[in-house]
């Protein structure tokens, strides 16, 4: 016995030191683990917030793009509706006002539509009829349309002179039939719409959403709302970000209005307008500290727990015995309650199995109502669609979906009750459970009710989609009082959630089918574009080959070949570049002539109306103008400082409406050396004499005079396209037509 005591006295200090060492190691381990968790939480929180801002910027930019597109359509409609009317007729047209008012009523985010004449005077507005006196000539949205251009313009934020409300303008140029300036159509957008929509979007904490213009960073709309005097000014750092990433981007250290923010931005469609979602850095730090402090508390508690673990374990051993006795009694008590809940869950599961495979909203609602009757014991059940509020009496009766009445109950009385109180039921906020409906409504005797059985018990539960949209209400009724309990309410809440999911899934299924069809159409279009690209590349190479062969036969040495061939390729490239800018559909004649004359930096004059050539006409005319410009620079007017080239053109009206107008173009050189016919026919001569005739069915005439060369071209603007379409049975391809013409000269 003494030896055992002695051994304990020897081992006791060692055990104490070991316990202290274990406690220290445990404390360091806990501290390291907590530090690692805090770091990982910071990294995860930063990434999550960054992803949230980028996702929100993309979504809000896409939403804003749709709003601007629809606004542009509304402006186009206003422009078309007023095109054939004089401004005096517009100003007094009640029919036009009603038409524009109807357009504005369909667009909840548009305040009003405005039509202003060439002087900026307000002629018609949906704000009031007749239009009040107002002037918009000093607005940037008005001045932007003084020059030709059909793009939608987003103006800077303003306070309306008539409405006296803060807003901003989107506008479109109005033109006469000849393309001259007629006025401007404006739309003022409702900032409250943006604020209310952005409030419903889940955003990071303390997030700031701004819709701003690229040109001056003027804020058009902001959430949270702020006065114009509190809006941020121009930021060079943000401008640098937009220049580096014009479509979308993110930032981590953007200083503005005295604080550093991070977030993301995204362009609104193709407009020079952006949506920016940002969060202050201190908000993320505060959120991280709010989430990380429990780890510090946990570390301290864990260290203290290591010291008192032994004593606590002994104490808990005593409590475990008492807890086991209590748990046995609690288990027995709750088993009975669980059996009752199990029956309800079986009904819910049965409805869930039906709803999970049901893609018809009407059948889903029917299954929910049937299950609700089983769960609540109601005499009457129905689903009221949310779109029934405020409708006519006939439409309101049709909104009682999946109406059910137990056998023996008065179906007519319940139906009449629902119809009479339909608006009241749909206007309820949240869940409504009434044990005695008439006493709660101040009608103890039920005199306000229609003839028939009194309806006392009511349970009304909203059905809302995952996006928060109100789909309607489940209504359960009974003629006895206090039928529906808190348990019934809880079960119907779960059933309503399943009903919302089933209805959403049905809508998503329909949307998915539409998206699949759209993707197939997109894939077909991509395949068509690839084939078109292959065809154009092949034809362009054929043209280059033909130019090379003809150039080689018309020059005497390699240096001359290189100079002539390079110039012709540059001319062809310039024409192709111009066509590319116009989507290979057309090319302005004036721009085409300028592209060919500009490289020679000589004195030239272009006189004529704005004419757009088709791609089939632009290629050969561009090549011909290049040959004339090259000849003028080497041998003609542009070879002398005092020389000048004048190009005049106009359109000659056709003899009848079936034929296309004729282009009459004259190239005139003056102030240079006398013009003499070439000794031999080269590439340029063949092009002017043969290619234009073959491809455009044109008439050409060259005059070599003492005062200089004169070239005249007469070509129908529809001849080349019609000819190609007749030969191939499909619309003309510009590259193929140019190739045919080039080969024809060999």
Structure notes:
By secondary structure, this protein is of the alpha+beta class. It has three domains: 44-290, Beta-Lactamase (2-Layer Sandwich); 358-511, 2-Layer Sandwich (Beta-Lactamase); 555-744, Histidine kinase-like ATPase, C-terminal domain (Heat Shock Protein 90), CATH 3.30.565. The strands form five sheets. Strands 2-1-5-4-3 form a five-stranded antiparallel sheet. Strands 7-6-10-9-8 form a five-stranded antiparallel sheet, with helices on both faces. The protein has a five-stranded antiparallel sheet with strand order 12-11-15-14-13, sandwiched between helices. Mean pLDDT is 78; it is low at 388-398, 444-451 and 722-746.
Short description, anyone?
With 746 residues, the chain is α+β, with helices and mostly antiparallel strands. The protein is built from 19 helices and 22 strands.
List keywords for this structure.
Beta-Lactamase; Heat Shock Protein 90; disordered C terminus; five-stranded antiparallel sheet; alpha+beta; 19 helices; 3 domains; 746 residues
Write down the CATH class of the largest domain. Answer: Alpha Beta
Write down the Rg. 40 Å
By CATH, the architecture of the largest domain is named 2-Layer Sandwich
Distance N to C terminus: 126 Å
Question: Helix share of residues?
Answer: 40-55%
Structural class by helix and strand composition: alpha+beta
**Proportion of strand residues:** 15-25%
- Let me know the number of strands: 22
Task: Briefly note the CATH topology name of the largest domain.
Answer: Beta-Lactamase
């Amino acid at each position: 016995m003494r030896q055992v005591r002695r051994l304990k006295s020897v081992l006791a200090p060692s055990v104490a030191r070991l316990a202290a060492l274990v406690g220290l190691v445990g404390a360091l381990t806990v501290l390291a683990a907590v530090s690692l968790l805090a770091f990982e939480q910071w990294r995860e929180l930063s990434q999550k917030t960054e992803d949230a801002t980028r996702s929100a910027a993309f979504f809000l930019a896409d939403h804003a793009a749709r709003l601007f597109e629809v606004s542009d359509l509304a402006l186009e409609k206003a422009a078309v509706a007023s095109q054939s009317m004089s401004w005096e007729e517009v100003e007094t047209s009640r029919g036009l006002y009603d038409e524009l008012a109807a357009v504005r009523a369909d667009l909840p985010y548009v305040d009003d539509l405005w039509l202003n004449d060439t002087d900026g005077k307000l002629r018609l507005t949906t704000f009031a009829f007749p239009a009040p006196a107002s002037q918009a000539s000093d607005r940037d949205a008005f001045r932007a349309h003084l020059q030709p251009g059909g793009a939608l313009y987003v103006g800077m934020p303003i306070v309306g002179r008539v409405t006296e409300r803060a807003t901003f303008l989107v506008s479109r140029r109005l033109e006469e039939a000849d393309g001259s300036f007629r006025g401007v159509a404006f739309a003022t957008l409702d900032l409250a719409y943006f604020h209310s929509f952005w409030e419903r979007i889940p955003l990071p904490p303390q997030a700031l959403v701004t819709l701003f213009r690229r040109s001056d960073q003027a804020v058009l709309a902001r959430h949270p709302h702020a006065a114009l005097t509190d809006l941020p000014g121009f930021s060079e750092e943000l401008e640098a970000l937009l220049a580096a990433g014009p479509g979308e981007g993110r930032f981590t250290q953007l200083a503005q209005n005295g604080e550093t923010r991070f977030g993301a931005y995204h362009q609104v469609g193709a407009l020079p307008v952006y949506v920016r979602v940002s969060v202050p850095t201190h908000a993320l730090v505060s959120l991280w500290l709010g989430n990380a402090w429990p780890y510090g508390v946990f570390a301290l508690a864990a260290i203290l727990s290591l010291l008192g673990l032994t004593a606590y374990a002994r104490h808990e051993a005593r409590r475990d015995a008492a807890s086991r006795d209590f748990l046995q009694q609690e288990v027995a008590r709750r088993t009975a309650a669980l059996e009752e809940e199990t029956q309800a869950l079986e009904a819910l599961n049965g409805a869930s199995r039906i709803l999970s495979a049901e893609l018809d909203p009407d059948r889903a609602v029917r299954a929910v109502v049937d299950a609700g009757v089983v769960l609540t014991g109601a005499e009457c059940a129905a689903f009221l669609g949310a779109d029934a509020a405020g409708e006519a009496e006939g439409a309101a009766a049709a909104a009682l979906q999946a109406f059910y009445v137990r056998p023996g109950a008065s179906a007519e009385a319940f139906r009449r009750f629902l119809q009479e109180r339909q608006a009241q039921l749909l206007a309820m906020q949240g869940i409504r459970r009434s044990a005695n409906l008439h006493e709660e409504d101040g009608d103890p005797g039920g005199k306000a009710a229609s003839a028939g059985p009194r309806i006392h018990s009511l349970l009304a539960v909203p059905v809302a989609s995952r996006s928060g949209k109100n789909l309607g209400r489940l209504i359960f009724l009974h003629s006895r009082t206090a039928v529906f309990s808190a348990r019934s309410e809880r079960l119907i809440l779960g059933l309503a959630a399943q009903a919302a999911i089933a209805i959403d899934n049905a809508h998503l299924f329909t949307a998915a089918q539409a998206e699949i069809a759209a993707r197939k159409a997109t894939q077909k279009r991509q395949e068509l574009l690839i084939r078109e690209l292959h065809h154009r590349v092949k034809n362009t190479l054929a043209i280059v080959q033909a130019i090379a062969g003809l150039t080689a036969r018309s020059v005497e040495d390699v240096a001359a070949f290189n100079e002539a061939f390079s110039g012709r390729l540059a001319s062809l490239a310039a024409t192709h570049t111009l066509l590319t800018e116009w989507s290979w559909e057309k090319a302005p004649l004036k721009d085409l002539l300028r592209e060919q004359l500009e490289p020679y930096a000589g004195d030239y004059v272009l006189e004529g109306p704005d004419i757009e050539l088709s791609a089939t006409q632009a290629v050969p005319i561009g090549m011909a103008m290049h040959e004339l410009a090259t000849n003028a620079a080497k041998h003609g007017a542009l070879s002398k400082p005092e020389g000048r080239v004048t190009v005049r053109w106009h359109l000659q009206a056709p003899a009848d409406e079936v034929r296309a107008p004729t282009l009459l173009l004259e190239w005139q050189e003056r102030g240079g050396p006398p013009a003499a016919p070439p000794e031999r026919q080269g590439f340029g001569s063949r092009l002017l004499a043969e290619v234009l005739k073959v491809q455009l069915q044109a008439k050409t005439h060259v005059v070599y005079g003492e005062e200089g060369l004169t070239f005249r071209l007469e070509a129908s603007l529809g001849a080349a396209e019609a000819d190609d379409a007749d030969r191939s049975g499909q619309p003309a391809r510009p590259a193929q037509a140019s190739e045919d013409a080039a080969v024809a000269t060999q």
